[in-house]
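FIELD: query
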Amino acid sequence: MFDRVFIDVTADDVAALRDHGPGWALMWDGADVIIRPIADSDDGSLMQIGDYDSIAQISEFNAEDGRGSDDEDLADDYTDIANDYLASWGDERRLMPLIAPISRALRDHGITRIGGGLVGWRAGGPCQVTQLYRTPNTDTRAEITVTGCPGDPIELAVSGHGRTYTAFLNPGTPARTVAARFVAAARAAR
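FIELD: result
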């Protein structure tokens, strides 16, 4: 559907994201690059390109690689990221509504989404989307994976300080219950 589209993130877009600060992200609405609160893309209706915190991460990566990190350089990086994400956005839009209620419940605990969902395939299985989360303890990596198949479990994985906690919850588990398990796992991984 979007195979002839090219998303162009500009230096002005990067500057505007920098001005908006934490909790905001560059997104694509199917026509334009826009800046919105991260929560606005929970359901996959907007494609998240990168959040405010990714500015520092990309700048650090560029410095290690000997590349520049001014707004023009970052705009080029975000343009590449956006166009890479575009290839799987159709699957992401279909699966993100399954994660949206969980993302909203996690936000009540200070756990927020990082970027858009990562779309992939289980070996011999269905398409899946994995959503990464930022926990209040920044050394902890957390993710939730769902598939579009009825009956498939919700997978939680929380890693930090050399330990990983993985749990599989029944489909249809209430979002608040998933969030509570997630929060407990994040605390255990600290």
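FIELD: remark
The chain has a mean pLDDT of 86.
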